[in-house]
Amino acid sequence: MPQGGGTRPRNIDSRVILFEDVKLVYPNGVHALSDINLQINRGEFLFLVGSTGQGKSSILKLIYREVRPTAGDVTVDGRPLSRLPESQVPFLRRKVGVVFQDFKLLRQKTVWENVAYALQVTGASSRDVMRRVPRALELVGIAHKSKMFQHELSGGEQQRTAIARSLVNNPLIMLCDEPTGNLDPETSSEIMALLARINAKGTTVVVATHNQASVDRMRRRVVRLIHGRIAHDEERGRYHVGLG
Amino acid sequence: MDWGKVRFFWSEVAQNFTRNAAMAVTAIGTVAISIIVLGVFLFLRSSSDIVMKSVVSKLEIAVYLKDEVEGPTITAMLHALQIDPRVDSARFVSKNQALADLRKRLHGQVDLGLINSNPLPNSIIIHTIDPENVPVVAQEFTSRPEVSYVNYGSQHTQKLLRAETVFGYIGIGIIVLLLIANALIIYNTIRLTVFARQREINIMHLVGATRWTIRWPFVLEGVLSGLIGAAVGLAVLWPTYHALVPKLALNLPFLPLDLSAVPVGHIALELLLIGGLIGMFSSWISVSRFVETA
What we know:
The structure holds two protein chains of two kinds.
Chain A: E1 15-25, E2 31-41, E3 45-49, H1 56-63, E4 71-76, E5 79-80, H2 89-95, E6 96-100, H3 111-120, H4 126-140, H5 155-167, E7 173-177, H6 185-200, E8 204-208, H7 212-218, E9 221-226, E10 229-234
Parallel strand pairs in A: 3-8, 3-9, 6-7, 7-8
Antiparallel strand pairs in A: 1-2, 1-4, 4-5, 9-10
Chain B: H1 3-19, H2 21-57, E1 61-65, H3 71-82, E2 87-93, H4 95-105, E3 123-128, H5 134-142, E4 147-151, H6 154-195, H7 198-206, H8 211-251, H9 264-293
Antiparallel strand pairs in B: 1-3, 1-4, 2-3
Helix pairs in contact in B: 1-2, 1-8, 2-6, 2-8, 2-9, 6-9, 8-9
């Protein structure tokens, strides 16, 4: 439950991500997370903050089923992931767009092809691809660079491409792992503003970040992790919430 | 059949070929060189097989008859041989015919005018369908009362037949070893090209591609690399074959080698098939390892 912040209304039907007593220990023995109980509602915008190694990325990896919890369970869109067969993971990932600090674009593909790929793997028709890719590129403001390759783009443009790729399948949730970690302050602000616009259209957005300026400016829900535990959870929080 | 997916897979293959040209050329080149080595050996094996078969097919049984054996008995023996399923041909050589043949063979070497009588016996010359049956059929005649002597070069025949079997096994052994060596070389090359794209495979997983969606373009690419590599290898082998074989036939006239009997078309098809299959399995195994662990 949130600590230190205001009371949060918790409607069972509206929760899209649910962590119940989650513990995560990696095979190398590193204790990443302990006693994680967290509810994230549909359409919510949440910042995960904390210094490096506190478990922010591990929370995201549990949501897109890159790792499984050692104990407890994670439920996404009503589906407990511990019971999700391996063959269903790709279908979960089509509902969960992921954006990384290092962009993770396919180097030999153009901007257009990178975004289209996320659609094509779902079996979308070429007509669908032709309709939805330009829309996603327009939304993130990268349509004019659609024929360029990754090495021809700036960091911000690469991140916009990655966001367009995660958006194109109309995901329920967008997870962003340090999306502004490699960007200058001005571009970082633009990317955060873009994420806020995407959230305003109804997508749940979870951002793991060190970007204090953006967190303090946007005043959204902030969850602070310390030593793999939730130390603080506050509505309209600030970056240093819970640090005294 | 989902044609949209088929089109998507092939467009991925085409893109990988054109945008990762260096890797594609490496894989194709490796297959081509392996196919050339294998092709040369298959040709040599096929040629030596033909030589061996030609030598072995000349094995015959000479059944020498006693002088008192009359025409009806000989006719009955010939008839029995003609209906024997193991026998390819059986012909009677009269003692006069045998002498005439001898005169012809030794013409200019020995003066046979000194011989007044004909010491040669009547005989039946038998060819079996399978040279392996030569000793068996010959043995059946040795104890017959009409027969004075059976000659089938028993020791040489046994050695020749054994040599044919041993050469056959050695040939198959070398082909198997070459195939394994080639498969390993091609597999390692393709594995390296897949390994270089491990990051891509991880990204494909992250955007929700199923294992088969990731695997198919790699497998198709492997098949194509194998087929193109084999075709390049054949493009080198074919003109070389046509340029060298006539010279080989001219320079080795003593060998009973009918080079036109070497099934080059068949060998070419085999090489294409080998290239395609090794390419396919190499990609399949390589990509599966990364897909399973991603």
